[in-house]
Amino acid sequence: MRRTARPLTGTALAVAAAALAAAPAYGAPAGDLEVSPSSVVPGGQVTVRTAACGTDGTATGDAGAVGAGSLGLAPGPHGQDVTGRFRVPPSAQPGTYEITATCSGSGRRVTGDLVVTLVSGREQVHPRGSVKTGVGGALGPDPLQTAAGVAALAVAAAGGTWLLHRRARGDGI
Prior knowledge:
Keywords: Signal. By secondary structure, the chain is α+β, with helices and mostly antiparallel strands. Helices cover about 30% and strands about 25% of the residues. The N and C termini lie far apart (about 80 Å).
């Protein structure tokens, strides 16, 4: 029993230590700034929300990185969250921008990321049909080219067989 207990105890302690170390990685911290939608096209409207400022708190947001300037965050309908909105300028370039909010009472600063794209998720173009990679494949659109390819392979196979047969007989090549 003692021989089995030590490895099991060591394994259990290692698993517990790993779980405790990884615990903060799961779930979003309560102090983050939620940016919705997280991906937007220039000219689109964005809502930011955080629970970091406490009940009935206010905050000042900064969307200057994307060119939208500052915004106010006020208590939202949920009571514990402060919410604000801004419009991404039509001149915004594609990229990832950091949006910040600073709580008025505590001075706590929270951040969130906004991705600006040229095409919205609803307007994305999905490829259709076959890929045009040039000549190749037996199921090409031209049956004459396919037949010519098969004939060339047959002639090459017949010629190779004839040469190998001559070499085996000793006729010399």
